[in-house]
């Protein structure tokens, strides 16, 4: 009877397939971006240790998605982006006790480290939340009250395994035994490898088991709800297994560092329920204003917290009469020289050092270019140097240097495009035609690049978007190398029109590259666009049109003076080959 009543609560009746909640969630995928709001979130990061590159990677993915959307929908009021710190729970309580400080002191110190890192890395969030804030306590306790009023919480005896490191309860099937430090066999989490202990206590329990079918229906009717696809299928597979009710509180005598259960000070709200509600707190919950932002929400999370976001969180939302989030973007982890990052191994990479060593834009580019959400990616210093020198210093920076060098472009302008030298129809012959088949291939690739990049962003494949840009940079360098403008003479009537056309095409390519790189390398892109003389109002994606003169339209940049000299676009990190860049500038 309880199962039927919960289904009715959610809007299901008989064989009816989708409730109004799911309909509104699906609509977000069909709406024109101009007509909808978008709300991007990172996880809130646990403050038991200093931030590492995995935390920064989560924030950069969300930042790039958010920046890309702002370039498509310039109205800043239509986009929000939140991050923050998770500051309650047993781990914080224990870490503070070990350090001999009050929990709030530990939280203040580590939360500040995250805020400083994200500010340094150019994370363009609109809100940074801490779960110790008063506004969050109000939201969590209200959310709890809604669940209770709907009959979805009951008090019962919980007995089973609990992992303090992961702050989660585990069924018997998710526990294994491994030799401990003393050689004795110890129980550990099958998924994380962290130690677990047997717990028996009276807690409040959420009727999670009643949401197995609603969750399955939500996912099957929204195949884009979880991206990449392997994680989507993984969640569906989890939902084929038994879904037991979930303990959502702990005894206050055991866990005092958290939000008390309303009306029962003997219990503290489970840290994950507390943490997940942050996504609502930020947009004004429980005030009515939050409804204008929910469920137009995209969560960016690591794969280790997928179950909490793809099963527990949607079930809790449905229980409270709300829709699941619009999309959940999942990414994998970073290893270091083939090994998992670990304090015990001493191989945790400090992202602040990396931002100093490789520059902010350089390290942003590396993580987003090399990070593939579907599988773990490996970090080592040599890889960073090789990638940044090759793609930013040599390929992109070298291309800019060639096109703006005084010997090749003495007027310092965007030269005119000659349609007789480069006719719009390939295959035409004549004394003035200079364009070759490979040049038309470049124009075709560049014309389709903005749409291709947009599709990659929509599919959470930022690394593929950067790969596509890099491929076109190589093609453009090939175009310049093929026609060698340094061998042409402005004084020669036969050469001048073609020389101007070669530079015009190359500068147009650079303008498109810089515009598309803004979400990933905002400072470098700004430097490049400023050098090209592109104003702040000409940098959006909505009106990005490559080489309009080729298609018979006027080009607003033709004849315009370039911006002032800004030095090297991206200095080489390996100075042993710096002479190549200097050669391109002469």
UniProtKB/TrEMBL annotation:
Q: GO CC terms for this protein?
A: mitochondrial matrix
GO process annotations (BP)? methionyl-tRNA aminoacylation
- List the subcellular locations: Mitochondrion matrix
Catalysis: reaction(s): tRNA(Met) + L-methionine + ATP = L-methionyl-tRNA(Met) + AMP + diphosphate
Annotated ranges, domain Methionyl/Leucyl tRNA synthetase: 39-403
Q: Does the keyword Transmembrane apply?
A: no
Keyword terms of this UniProt record: Aminoacyl-tRNA synthetase, ATP-binding, Ligase, Mitochondrion, Nucleotide-binding, Protein biosynthesis, Transit peptide
- The EC designation for this entry is 6.1.1.10
According to the entry, every stretch annotated as the Methionyl-tRNA synthetase anticodon-binding domain falls at 437-535
Q: Does the keyword Mitochondrion apply?
A: yes
Any one GO molecular-function label of the UniProt entry: ATP binding
Describe the family membership recorded for this protein in Swiss-Prot or TrEMBL. Answer: Belongs to the class-I aminoacyl-tRNA synthetase family.
* Protein's recorded name: Methionine--tRNA ligase, mitochondrial
- Originating species: Ictidomys tridecemlineatus
